[in-house]
């Protein structure tokens, strides 16, 4: 096993983990289905009470007319952009350079839909109103990701969002929300999901980030939009005969965790402050605006990997399971606070950070 | 409720059903997961023992080098054709006029991949070697569906298949198998799945037809081919973080039913013969070559719907849950024999057909 694998293995075995909702194992499914009657009818090709009720519930929660359940956000978002491009008759959209569609989807948007993205802003900062004002009239749709995951989960001020939304409406540019972590930002904005979504023409949300389901996504908007999305869902091969394993787990964990987002947010701020007390470590954002943040180490991956493993093995506290290098000589990881954090005793956290600090200081002065 | 809905409702309530593997309810999932430990790790984005072991198992069963699990056949088959088109540098493929890609996928192949299909053969008969010989050198791939579902599940002679395969190889045309019901035809051909698949460059199989899983498909072929299919799977939005609800049920029901295909085939022949004894009724094929056949009624849908409902309510035997009209004044349905048939007492079947005959004769002479 190399150092990356050793850290991952140690994290998995750890009795305490700072981030997440626990292991992504089969138990996530079993917990839900153990409580459900086997005679309940499945959804069939997008029809049936099971799927329709959940779609209506989430449409109402997001304040949108209609919603469609998708197996993945990758599929849902490409389709949203395609619909807005077809409506305007232009193949140009705009989004952040670190947008999921740009860096994690093997260029599906370009290869399948021949849509050309304009990259707005620098990759290490948020899109601003000033950036949006540089767009020309050919742009069909602007995608905003809230929070911007790849830069630690940053958010613009709500007033800036409102201004971007107003500008786009005035210029005939559709505004799409990549809300993979939308539920997680409502406590910071002190707004309901519907108040945030009201600024957008279409919205995607995920059920396996803060909500902790197995997989699955909702795409919401006006009925015309969602009806067209169903045709594209079939074209993509996403109109499965039955999606209930994802729908029922999404629904179950939505009910269980939607009320805990403020708690996760508070805990993320508490935890980030502890990291920021360590020499050679800082978080981005410094003060989180959701349940997530990035931890940056001013040391190379090769130095930090064994330290995190040793802290984990000595104290039982898994800080994180992975590190990536972005700039030479530094590395980072990501924490999304979920159910696991509340079950770590405070004394255990203090013990883990005492050791982490000690080891980092030794490495920094080496 | 209209007559179509009434028949469907009566069929669902019926203690006995001639076709299928029982109700498509949540119990299909529960039966599998009740027996599995919750601590088993899930698959993560196509990796992990759970998905890799199943892919290897089915690749071996199909006699192919490699296999990839997909959420749907729609996705898997578009991707297979796309890969063969890219390899040849031509956007032309050939398939039957009633191919799934042509009639059930909202033209995903054309809209997403800009592939142009040449329709071979008339829609009411199989593709022959003579049809294949009319293809020009621009065709990247010929798709054959075995059995041809929309015409009752017909099959060419194995010798004709071999000749088509040899011809395609010689002319540089890739041969793809739509094997949605491949497992179901091995008893008729008296060949293993691998012997049939050896004639094809790529193969798709489904796990919710004869196998009776929830959803899911395998695409198999050479390793180069399957590696490229994974990139397209991500582009389509099918590389879900976890597919285990479909993989584990596919695996469970594969083991449970793969050995029963000869039984289903024998029962389908027995059942088709009983239908063919009814005046005004014939099956297609007359003698089934798999577990499936179509039942044609020489009476309009409006006449047959109430008859089937009455037979169902009076005898407890659900003959079928639906009818479609193709030509005016006639209608048809489809039966795929599965686990349900063996649990219908023979006396019940005789009773149901006595009543069905009586009612059809009355309607025909009315």
From TrEMBL, chains A, B:
<comment type="similarity">
    <text>Belongs to the threonine aldolase family.</text>
</comment>
<dbReference type="InterPro" id="IPR015421">
    <property type="entry name" value="PyrdxlP-dep_Trfase_major"/>
</dbReference>
<dbReference type="GO" id="GO:0006545">
    <property type="term" value="P:glycine biosynthetic process"/>
</dbReference>
<dbReference type="GO" id="GO:0006567">
    <property type="term" value="P:L-threonine catabolic process"/>
</dbReference>
<dbReference type="GO" id="GO:0005829">
    <property type="term" value="C:cytosol"/>
</dbReference>
<keyword id="KW-0456">Lyase</keyword>
<feature type="domain" description="Aromatic amino acid beta-eliminating lyase/threonine aldolase">
    <location>
        <begin position="41"/>
        <end position="294"/>
    </location>
</feature>
<dbReference type="InterPro" id="IPR015422">
    <property type="entry name" value="PyrdxlP-dep_Trfase_small"/>
</dbReference>
<keyword id="KW-0663">Pyridoxal phosphate</keyword>
<protein>
    <submittedName>
        <fullName>Beta-eliminating lyase-related protein</fullName>
    </submittedName>
</protein>
<dbReference type="GO" id="GO:0008732">
    <property type="term" value="F:L-allo-threonine aldolase activity"/>
</dbReference>
<dbReference type="InterPro" id="IPR001597">
    <property type="entry name" value="ArAA_b-elim_lyase/Thr_aldolase"/>
</dbReference>
<dbReference type="InterPro" id="IPR015424">
    <property type="entry name" value="PyrdxlP-dep_Trfase"/>
</dbReference>
<dbReference type="Pfam" id="PF01212">
    <property type="entry name" value="Beta_elim_lyase"/>
</dbReference>
